[in-house]
Amino acid sequence: MNHMKNYALMAGILAVFACCSREEPGTDHPSAPPVETKPPNTKYQPAFSGQTRANGAVTKTKIKTDIITSALANPWGITELPDGRLLVTEKAGNMRIVKTTGELSAPITGLPAVNAAGQGGLLGVCLDPDFATNRTVYWTFSEQVAGGNLTSVGKGRLAADEKTIEGATVIYHALPRRTSTLHYGSRILFDKTGNLFVSTGEGSNLDTRPLAQSVSAVLGKVIRITKTGQAAPGNPTFSGAGALPELYSIGHRNPQGLAIHPVTGELWECEHGPRGGDEVNRIQPGRNYGWPVITYGIEYSGEPIGDAIQQKDGMEQPAYYWDPVVSPSGMTFYAGKRVPEWENNLFIGALSGQHIVRLVFSNNKVVGEERLLASEGQRFRDITQGRNGALYAVTDQGRLYRIDKE
Fold it and tell me: How do strand 287-288 and strand 247-250 relate by DSSP bridges?
């Protein structure tokens, strides 16, 4: 009898242990060597294990890659229409619809002019959650105004014939104006409450760089606004004179990636570092992500940035960083079922890295990194997941890829 009781007790303990140790889908604890083999630019040490150069991961499912078209001109943003076609922005200021068979529409007219000099142009794009009934599109772009340039947010209605954007209006300007044509950001997407997240860059120049820390400027920020461009209800409150109500997080450099985790609903962001120090951040409202006070990078000249510190009280650590850089741009979490090992993994287009990053997480920490399509020699600018479970990625060289289970 005692033997049976002991057996039952042990079985219960094992059952509890198995339940508590169960991992999320997509977590396979990779054990391969890190994919980055080049020496870092600095001797800076990570704040915690796995913050950089995580173990390598390898996709076991057979994947096929198709080039849908190579005829785009510097595509920057991509999102899926309800019928499976893809809406793409091009840097020079055009918006096009691309069929998954490769056919491109003519440029959609009616958009406001963009300043495509430098890193500017027609940038991020997303659809209204009620697009099926109101056909409203939102986008970010670099706008030239009296006294300088701005990251701006536009909206308008895609006409029934899909040839024009009707009633295009600019609903938000990321002030102050700056003379730089660098570091605009900028991605845009809806949260689950029907409000918009928008990322903005800090302009790059030494005179605007410190504004990433200013609560009265919209440079180097993630903001949260309504469909009409007002501060969204429920935003955090920042302390300081002139603190703006639309601010959601501060202390960013050049954030070109935003994505919402499919399970937790949390916002994640990626941004370009200088020479080293590209970051992936889990964005929490009201937090300061440090730039330019703390960074894992250095100036392009090799000089240190500020006090050359990587940690400071009141400033958040990146969930992950790269040194040397990969230049992370658009990103998306995989929420499909076609490749189960990818579930809840983060996919990021890498520009200078010329590959697609796959990050595997456990408890919000990166436990594996894979580099996909590295042999293609392409600067991957944005990536999205289609309703069919495939990934679609665009490159600066004009290609649109479909990445799917074989």
Answer: parallel
In a domain, 394, yes or no: yes
Catalytic residues: 183
Residue 296 token pair: 């894992």
From the centroid of its chain, how far is CA 37?
Answer: 24
For residues 216 and 250, what is the distance between their CA atoms, to the nearest angstrom? Answer: 11
What is the rounded CA–CA span in Å between residue 153 and residue 145?
14
Query: Measuring CA to CA, which residue among 68, 172, 279 is closest to residue 78?
Result: 68
Would you call 368 helix, strand, or coil by DSSP?
A: strand
Phi, psi of 146 (to 5 degrees): -60, 125
- Residue of 288, 316, 119 lying closest to 205 (CA atoms): 119
Q: Which two tokens mark 253? A: 């450099």
**Predicted pLDDT at 173:** 98
Expressed as residue numbers, the domain containing 241 is 30-405
Three-state SS string across 53-98, please? CCCECCCCCCEEEEEEECCCCCEEEEEECCCCCEEEEECCCCEEEE
Residues 363, 372: Cα–Cα separation, whole Å: 23
d(CA 221, CA 10): 53
**Number of domains comprising the chain:** 1
Is the predicted pLDDT of residue 12 greater than 50, yes or no?
no
What is d(CA 380, CA 401) in angstroms, rounded to the nearest whole number?
10
Token reading at 395:
């490159």
* pLDDT tens figures, 254-294: 999 999 999 999 999 999 999 999 999 999 999 999 999 99
Distance CA 135, CA 162 (A): 10
CATH at 157:
2.120.10.30
The answer to whether residue 170 is domain-embedded is yes
Question: What does the block give as tokens for 153?
Answer: 């947010």
Q: How far is CA 216 from CA 176, 213, 288, 293, 330, in A?
A: 9, 9, 14, 17, 27
Supply the pTM of this predicted model. 0.93
List Cβ neighbours of 143 (8 Å cut-off, separation of 6 or more).
Answer: 112, 113, 114, 115, 149, 150, 151, 152, 170, 173
Q: What are the backbone dihedrals phi and psi of residue 337, each rounded to the nearest 5 degrees, phi first? A: -115, -5
